[in-house]
């Protein structure tokens, strides 16, 4: 029983970590592509992530402790005879009878493989909007890839095959995906299909609300934090592997500075006049008369608004235990509080930075329509 439980626990933990780290990015991509968020699409994406980690856990784990641990005679010999499981079924029935066969390992191993790949067929039809043939092909490709990965010791990562590559597994797994693709047409799985939204670029402009602007800020914060942690983490890993030592000022100031430049500053002064997160939410900065703001005004709004706040927050939060900018911490928190309160009470929803620079937000698609009408 433990061999069934612990891979599932690892799959749940892995999917939660993945969604916690990448969930906001997936929402940003969803909003950018479809122009809105859908709870059904989000649930299906989360289910796909959980299933992906589950498929990996049950087919790849546990991994050998060293490159050569799996290298001993008799282990990892591939089974290349199609239909061998049918012979094992006959042998089990002959020796144990039907009652014994119903509880035998050879039967339940096959049934488990079928069940394991049924969700892949369901997702192929519902999530990827494919058909039965799509589920069949996807199941075959996924199963073949898994068996080849096992046979090659994860493509040379290990010196020997650490699991038995079985051609029957490809057959059974593909059959499971096929069954899942057929069952996917049952109404019970309709909730896995997100709404058929067209390309967000061709959708009608929508009103800019406080929640939409707040969502854009969440996207910007996630992009910035992910980039900073990714770069600093990579440099720290390189240092631990014997590479050049990282400079504390580089880690705590220059990397956040460069990331904020690429996430906020450059996108704000280029056509579109919006940060990366705002672009995902289809927002653009406007001046008077709802025309696109000038590069200078958009830059000022960026520096006085969430772009400047994000930069100050990044540089005031050190990777060391003691912040190198204690006074800056206080100033940042005060400015964040004042900006948040003003954002909530301002009837025009312009925010403190918008009030100071005379700018606002409009749906970017409205400006695109104006350009087409000219």
UniProtKB/TrEMBL annotation:
Annotated source species: Glutamicibacter ectropisis
InterPro entries per the UniProt record, alphabetical: RDD, Teicoplanin_resist-assoc, VanZ-like
Pfam families: RDD (PF06271), VanZ (PF04892)
Keywords carried by this UniProt record: Membrane, Transmembrane, Transmembrane helix
Membrane topology value: Multi-pass membrane protein
GO CC, alphabetical: membrane
Domain VanZ-like intervals: 50-186
Residue spans crossing the bilayer: 6-29, 41-61, 105-125, 132-158, 170-193, 214-238, 250-269, 298-315, 327-345
Protein name according to UniProt: VanZ family protein
Domain (RDD): residue spans on this chain: 211-353
Protein's cellular compartments: Membrane
């Amino acid at each position: 029983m433990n061999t069934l439980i612990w891979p599932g626990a690892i799959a749940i933990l892995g999917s939660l970590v993945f969604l916690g780290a990448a969930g906001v990015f997936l929402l940003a991509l969803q909003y950018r592509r479809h122009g809105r968020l859908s709870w059904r699409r989000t649930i299906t994406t989360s289910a796909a992530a959980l299933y992906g980690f589950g498929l990996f856990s049950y087919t790849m784990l546990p991994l050998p402790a060293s490159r050569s641990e799996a290298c001993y005679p008799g282990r990892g010999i591939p089974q290349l005879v199609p239909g061998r499981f049918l012979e094992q079924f006959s042998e089990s029935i002959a020796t144990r009878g039907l009652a014994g066969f119903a509880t035998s390992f050879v039967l339940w191993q096959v049934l488990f493989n079928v069940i394991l790949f049924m969700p892949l067929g369901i997702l192929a039809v519902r999530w990827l909007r494919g058909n039965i043939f799509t589920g069949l092909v996807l199941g075959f490709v996924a199963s073949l890839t898994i068996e080849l990965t096992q046979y090659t010791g994860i493509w040379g990562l290990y010196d020997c095959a650490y699991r038995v590559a079985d051609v029957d597994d490809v057959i059974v797994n593909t059959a499971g995906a096929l069954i899942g693709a057929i069952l996917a047409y049952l109404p019970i799985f309709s909730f896995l299909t997100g709404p058929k939204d067209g390309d967000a670029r061709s959708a009608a402009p929508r009103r800019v609300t406080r929640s939409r602007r707040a969502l854009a800020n969440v996207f910007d914060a996630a992009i910035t934090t992910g980039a900073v942690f990714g770069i600093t983490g990579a440099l720290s890993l390189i240092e631990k592997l014997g590479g050049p030592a990282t400079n504390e000022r580089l880690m705590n100031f220059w990397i956040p500075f460069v990331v904020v430049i690429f996430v906020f500053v450059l996108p704000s002064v280029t056509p579109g006049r919006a940060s990366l997160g705002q672009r995902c939410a289809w927002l653009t900065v406007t001046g008077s008369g709802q025309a696109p703001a000038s590069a200078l005004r958009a830059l000022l709004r960026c520096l006085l608004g969430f772009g400047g706040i994000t930069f100050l927050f990044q540089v005031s939060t050190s990777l060391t235990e003691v912040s190198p900018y204690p006074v800056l911490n206080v100033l940042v928190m005060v400015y964040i509080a004042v900006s948040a309160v003003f954002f909530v009470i301002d009837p025009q929803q312009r925010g403190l930075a918008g009030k100071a620079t005379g700018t606002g937000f409009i749906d970017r698609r409205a400006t695109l329509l104006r350009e087409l009408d000219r």
